[in-house]
Amino acid sequence: MGERLEAAVSSKSTITYTEDDLIAELRTLTRKRLRAWLREGLVRPRREAGAALYDEIDRARLELILTLSDDFDIGDDALSICFGYIDQFHSLRRELTHLISVIDNQPETVRQAILKAWRGEA
Predict the structure, then answer these.
(1) Per the database record, which ranges form the HTH merR-type domain (predicted)?
(2) Is the separation of the CB atoms in 112 and 119 below 8 Å?
(3) CATH number at residue 73
C-alpha cells in the first residue's frame, strides 16, 4: 500500500504554463490578481531564466483560488489562512507517505511490532 501511495504523490506533471497561458485559459484571472496572489505566497511557480513557469498543480490551485474568491466571495486574508492549512495538510501527507514506505521496507517482525504499538498492544 505504501508504494502505491508514494508513487501517486511523487508523480510529476509535464505540462507547463506561462503567466500569459494561465490568464488566457482561466476566465477571471487577471495579471493584477495573479501578482497579488504571488506576493501573498498563495502560488509559488518555479523560475527558469527569470521567467515564472506554472505546472498543473499551480493551475489547479489557481482554479480553486478563483472559485473560492469569485463564487464564494472569500477574501485574500481568508484565502491565505485556508491555503496555509492546505499546504500543512499536503506536507503532513508527504511525511506520512515516506513513513509508510520506510515501514513497508522493514522485516515482518518489525512491521508487526509497529502495528502492535500503533494499536496500543505493546
Answers:
(1) 25-70
(2) no
(3) 1.10.1660
Long-range pairs for 2-8 at CB < 8 Å and ≥24 separation?
2/97, 2/100, 2/101, 2/103, 2/104, 3/101, 3/104, 5/97, 5/100, 6/97, 6/98, 6/100, 6/101
Domain of residue 44 covers: 17-119
pLDDT of residue 14: 77
Number of domains in the chain: 1
pTM of the model: 0.72
- Tens of pLDDT along 1-35? 444 444 444 455 579 999 999 999 999 999 999 99
Environment class of residue 37 by beta-carbon count within 10 Å: exposed (0-12), middle (13-18) or buried (19+)? buried
